[in-house]
Automatic annotation (TrEMBL):
Record PANTHER family: BIFUNCTIONAL PEPTIDASE AND (3S)-LYSYL HYDROXYLASE JMJD7, HYPOXIA-INDUCIBLE FACTOR 1 ALPHA INHIBITOR-RELATED
Pfam assignment, any one: Cupin_8
SUPFAM superfamilies listed in its UniProt record: Clavaminate synthase-like
Function: Bifunctional enzyme that acts both as an endopeptidase and 2-oxoglutarate-dependent monooxygenase. Endopeptidase that cleaves histones N-terminal tails at the carboxyl side of methylated arginine or lysine residues, to generate 'tailless nucleosomes', which may trigger transcription elongation. Preferentially recognizes and cleaves monomethylated and dimethylated arginine residues of histones H2, H3 and H4. After initial cleavage, continues to digest histones tails via its aminopeptidase activity. Additionally, may play a role in protein biosynthesis by modifying the translation machinery.
Protein name: Bifunctional peptidase and (3S)-lysyl hydroxylase JMJD7
Gene that specifies this protein: JMJD7
Native source organism of the sequence: Chrysemys picta bellii (Western painted turtle)
Length: 323
């Protein structure tokens, strides 16, 4: 919460600010843990809903998808064989950050359509590029761009579909270089994130940490590669500003965002064969081992009272920040 008020601040505003500063610790005491717990086997849909979705708590589930052929089949060689000859969308950036703040812009990656085999050449370091490549298009790219791989996983997670009474909105396929990083953000999805090979490193904040997490408004722009191979940041035409988190949780600028010192990130590594349940509205920052392959399922959240309470927290945080 930037702009903490001084002596002249109205008492009511000071009281709201005090409540917002106390709120994250109070929420944590009500049942959040120091680390992300593991489940060694699946629960029934009802149990999973009661114990994790409803309380909005993350967990890592082992043995949740041991039956998927992908776990044994998906090597880079296999992926090249079944999908190498097709054109796919790849996020290309100069620094590994797609959808992140760069200087005074919110910058999106160049979305390059390229042969999947050319992308694999880069991941396998058969071709050296100064840019960073990541297959990460979040529009259900597994079903839209890689239908030939779908039979090796599942189009939905049956127990989650039953628990939530709906099908996933998107099934995404992720494969990229270790330099590709996903900046801190949150989504309105119940996310089941399954690592097929390699490792993903998540840094998480519960939604209740919102008062300590800064947002700013940025003009949106896109990386465009020039003929000489250098990247330019090109503004989107007539686009509204985008609220985004400027802070890098791995190296937070506490002079600019001192409140973040009070936030308490949870860190976890999700290994091959493990599934992270990442509840809706949790902030997450993601790194990976080189060539990590993952599939995740986004189930739209319920826009219920929990959502409304988060909106209230967000509005109050913005209100005191602006003063
Ligand atoms: O794996 C990643 O790089 C990002 C995942 C993510 O942000 C998500 O699933 O919402």
């Amino acid at each position: 919460m930037a702009g903490a008020g001084g002596e002249g601040e109205a008492p009511a505003l000071r009281a709201v600010r005090r409540c917002l500063v106390a709120f994250p610790a109070e929420a944590r005491e009500l049942g959040l843990m120091e680390s992300v717990p593991y489940l060694d086997s699946l629960l029934s849909p009802l149990e999973f809903y009661r114990e994790w979705v409803c309380p909005n708590k993350p967990c890592i589930i082992r043995n949740a998808f041991g039956h998927w052929p992908a776990l044994k089949k998906w090597t880079l060689t296999y992926l090249r064989k079944v999908a190498g000859s097709k054109m796919v969308s790849v996020a290309v950036t100069p620094n590994g950050y797609a959808d992140a703040v760069y200087q005074d812009r919110f910058v999106m990656p160049e979305e390059r359509h390229m042969l999947f085999s050319n992308f694999l050449d880069i991941v396998e370091k058969k071709v050296i590029s100064p840019s960073v490549f990541y297959v990460q298009k979040q529009c259900s790219n597994l079903t839209e761009e890689f239908p030939e791989l779908l039979g090796d996983v599942e189009p939905e997670v049956p127990w989650m579909s039953e628990a939530l009474g709906k099908k996933p909105d998107a099934v995404n396929f992720w494969l990229g270089e270790s330099a590709a990083v996903t900046s801190l953000h949150k989504d309105h999805y119940e996310n089941l994130y399954c690592v097929i090979s390699g490792e993903k490193h998540f840094l998480l904040h519960p939604p209740s940490d919102r008062p300590f997490i800064p947002y700013e408004l940025y003009l949106p722009a896109t990386y465009c590669i020039s003929e000489d191979g250098s990247f330019q940041v090109v503004d989107e035409k007539a686009a509204d500003k985008v609220p985004w988190i400027p802070l890098d949780p791995l190296n937070p600028d506490l002079e600019q965002y001192p409140e973040y010192a009070q936030a308490r990130p949870l860190r976890c590594t999700v290994k091959a064969g493990e599934m992270l349940y990442l509840p809706s509205l949790w902030f997450h920052h993601v790194q990976q081992s080189h060539g990590c392959i993952a599939v995740n399922y986004w189930y739209d959240m319920e826009y219920d009272l929990k959502y409304s309470y988060y909106q209230l927290l967000d509005s109050l945080t913005k209100a005191v920040t602006l003063v």
